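Below is how a single chain appears once it has passed through the pipeline. First comes the sequence as given, then the structure the pipeline wrote out for it. We keep one example in the README because the format questions we get most often are answered faster by looking than by reading.
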Amino acid sequence: MGTPISFTQPTTHSQLLSMGLLEIGTGCRISPYALIEPVDEQGTLRPVRIGDHAVIGAGAILHGGARIGNEACIEDHVTVGKPETGYAVGHTYCGTGTDTHIGHGVTLRSGAILYAGTRIGDNTAVGHHTLIRSHSHLGADSVLGHFLVIERACHLGDRVRCSPLSHLTSETVLEDGVFLGAGIRTVNDKHLIWRETDRTPTLLPPRFEAGCKVGSGSTILSGITIGERALVGAGSVVTHDVAADSTVYGSPARPRPATAH
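Resulting structure:
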């Protein structure tokens, strides 16, 4: 837990080191133009820790609580550990920071933004300009393409592949080995309620079970489960659960023989 304090940002990394707000491992390459922001909107200080042989590019911003693993590569203009602010889904976020963990050998491509509380497993790669919201967890050996949006509290397993330009709604689960094509859309609200004073939305995110594959351009509706090793054809609109080991496609998606063309 950090300490609330009135704090003016020092101008050099050496000042932060002397204050105990920055720890740097051996063999690191850190651009002098990388910015360390150890204080959140509430005035709470949290140190930033950078592991051995990590690379931090120019214009990268590491917020308080960032834990960068050994041999991680944080490219130019990446943001790590940004505290959440503003209104979303019945809750107002007030800029409170927390620990953000970047595993061993992780690569964050230029322009990626990771909010506070995110965890990235070892040897995972996150593409250019991908946005990962607060408290989402990604497993090891996974690949996220560019321009993805991963909303709050999503959980992605190991060896997951998400192609570019897809959107995972809040609390979506992708188990180990899931493959999502490009431009996948997920929905968690059946009634499209937002800020209506007389109703509270019941949010039911979809779930993707181990080893399933979803073709590019598909839409997965609220509360849907895609079963283990199932295949969803490109451009499908999935309105019902998909059984394990089955093949579905169409709008709405329906079961088809696995050998159909």
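The first helix runs from residue 13 to 18.

See the next section for the split statistics.
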